[in-house]
Design a protein that fits this description.
This protein is mostly helical and about 220 residues long. The protein has one domain. Helix content is about 75%, strand content about 0%. It is built from 9 helices and no strands. The mean pLDDT is about 90. This is Integral membrane protein TIGR01906. Keywords: Membrane, Transmembrane, Transmembrane helix. InterPro entries: Lit.
Amino acid sequence: MFFQLSTKKEKLITLLLAFWIIALAIILTTFLSPILYNQQVNAFHLPELVNMPSTQIKENYTNIIHYLSLLTHTSMQVSSKLITSEATRIHFADVKKVLEVIQIYFLLSTFLLIPLIHTTLKEKRHMFLKTTPIVLIVIIGIVGSFMAINFDGAFTLMHQLIFRNNYWLIDPRIDPIISIFPETFFLELGIILLGLIALMIVLMIVLDKYLKKYYLEKEK
């Protein structure tokens, strides 16, 4: 019903905005993750797992996140104790490429969305504030259900879909770096990611109701 009522421009805004929000949530979750990580290094008993001081583990994790930035053009600065194989370095380079695509999409879609949303609101149309939450609810509903039912399966499927090789299957005996990324921590990041998207959905619903009330009062 909502999509039948919306214009082609609003449909375009819906798709761009839905994936813009997902990209924003991924970027925020990734680059703010050291805050959460640094608080849990000892709780996960990581110093014992990799035989490394917690301060050094935190530094390596921060360096990895810095490496994933679109603005970083240097090689990844990680202790040789954590990575010994070329395959694992290639995997992190692959992760960087994926995140760079997400960051580029976020920037480009921002420049596209600003004029599109501006002109649509000037026309007193805001159906995209109804349709975008629907698209996002379907997406996070599917992903969230899969994570809740079988997180290991969801995690594996995600890697199989994104990467064209098996370098993500890291052997901790060869490359202990995988041990500083506990599965529980990934689960926490997944929950935060979905939470950020849910927050944006709520904000759009509130904004839609506000605009509807605003336009009605303006017509009186």
